[in-house]
Amino acid sequence: MLSLYNTLTRQKEAFKPIEPGKVRMYVCGMTVYDLCHIGHARMLAAFDVIYRWLKASGYDVTYVRNITDIEDKIIKRALERGITPEQLVEETIADMHQDAAALGLLPPTFEPRATHHVGGMIALIEQLIANGKAYPAANGDVYYAVREFEGYGKLSGRTLDKLRAGERVEVDPNKRDPLDFVLWKAAKPGEPSWDSPWGKGRPGWHIECSVMSCHHLGEHFDIHGGGEDLQFPHHENEIAQSEGAHGHQYVNYWLHNGFINVDGEKMSKSLGNFFTIRDVLEHFDGEVIRFFIVRSHYRSPVNYTDSILNDAKQGLTRLYTALRGIDLPASQGIDWNNAYAARFKAAMDDDFNSSEAVAVLFDLAGEVNKSRDPQQARLLKDLAGVLGLLTRDPDAFLKGGVSEGELSAEQVEALIQARKDARAAKNWAESDRIRDELTAKGIVLEDSAAGTTWRRA
What we know:
- It is a single chain.
- It is built from 16 helices and 15 strands.
- The protein is α/β, with parallel strands linked by helices.
- The strands form 5 sheets. The chain has a 4-stranded parallel β-sheet with strand order 4-3-9-10, sandwiched between helices. Strands 5-6-7-8 form a 4-stranded antiparallel β-sheet. Strands 12-11-13 form a 3-stranded mixed β-sheet, with helices on one face.
């Protein structure tokens, strides 16, 4: 049985969907004001693996990942670039989708945008006011009254008294309590705005996900996920809003992925220590980036360096090399009674432990290297495919991924032919020179009775 770590209860629990055979899952997506960085890739790939495993386990999964397309950062960046927020949003969403494709992400079932649900946000705020959980202020904003929600802090473990005593809280004369958070922001000159019962304005950030999730999944659903930095205040506030309005539990299982760190610090744009997916793709294949992420457990912190990416490249190369030259039979589906498949399943059923599942792939690859058994190779490809790995022809991966300054496949083949001609002429010095040139360019030659094959180091 699948078990997962529930942030809400702080323990592993057996997964029991609300409706047998069906899973409804919501994950907080991107605020589209800039290119995605590798920290975002961690979240996107982690929940892609979770989505894939739920589907592989036979569940009918509705996966919703939202887009925040109205927010202070979007307005500020559009102003800096001299374009409209709408233009910035469309450009950035296209870039995000391009990066997602490079990482091998499956598209979510729904990808709602905040601006398409403003009417629902207004309705939810009205319900919160009617329930005594929110109040309009004199400045045109509407605030959530956190002390009116008894369960505030249950996700993060932060009580209101501890928050007041231990954290700096903005002083705002419009709030009844410094910890209250904004649901609706009064319009400022030049900013996008919508009509509301409280005047022109736009929604606060937290209210978006309460509305978009419930619109697609209902007021009570199975799984809510996101980066661990969203646990407080964003997800805490989502619970307060949704349960404060509807009067019952919002989500059964809360999942949070760990950070990618650089020199021990969380990678983030605010710290300036981030690498965009686009930057990293200039040097590493998208599947290498995915493998770097997938080979760690989704809740574990991961350190980012070029050397670690290079190690991931070598690991993925080992797996593809095991498949090289084997004529694979058509897939008949995975026999989960097979010893390797059973180990893989046990790992993934243990809170989506992709790290242990990847270890199974390496063990199976070792067997394939010894036996060259097409059925074992087929199993390796099928199990890896559950993680979104080994989806290409081995030669396409092993010979691809050309970066600036590297030899193209055509140039490599030409040099291999020149070496072959030199060897036929017994010009060993020239043959050795060509091999050394290829080695210096990161090309590994493998000579056999059948001829010479090659791959990138």
